[in-house]
Amino acid sequence: MKIGITPKKFAQMFVRTRNGSEAAVRLGAEPSAAKLMEAGMLADSRVKKEIRRLDREDMQTLCYVKTGLSRLAFGSVNDAAALVFDEQPSYEKIMRADLFNVSEIKRVKGGGVEMKFFDRQKALEKLVELDPELKEISSAERFMRDLISGMGGESGSETAAAAGAVDTEGGESGNG
Fold first, then answer.
1. By C-alpha distance, which of 12, 127, 112, 153 is closest to 71?
2. Are residues 66 and 104 in the same domain?
3. What's the whole-model pTM score?
4. Are residue 15 and residue 29 in the same domain, yes or no?
5. What range defines the domain where residue 108 resides?
6. Same domain, yes or no, for 12 and 55?
7. What confidence tens digit (pLDDT) does each residue in 73-111 have?
8. 117 — alpha (psi -120 to 50), left (phi > 0) or beta?
């Protein structure tokens, strides 16, 4: 059976899965022929070129996502707070306000305004998930905590100090 898997379609699926055999099967190839198709497609210069192009686009999109998450995690809510406390904000003041961190605005029955903000902690967690370097640091820290908590016979702070994770005042040491 002849299947019409084009280099462009294969490249698009490969960028999503990062697995050539899986990409071939998802595009309709028989599982028994997937490895052979993977080898042929990944050797094709058109496929390589398309993968590079899609990766560049993906990096641009990832950059936008990281920027947005950074704004949520570290951005100011001063403009939003000023609007809440302003009795009659002008149209211009509302339009100029940076409300990026605002997730919801409601008028309450008593005549006030209720604002909810995006969760900074969740934004930071997502940033760590998206940044391989931060993810490695997080994994290493988690491993050290698990290792330290798994050591028997010593108190937690003594064990942590012995492992070099805590200074004598009980605060964390390191870069952090």
1. 127
2. no
3. 0.49
4. yes
5. 75-118
6. yes
7. 998 999 999 988 888 888 888 888 889 999 999 988 887
8. beta
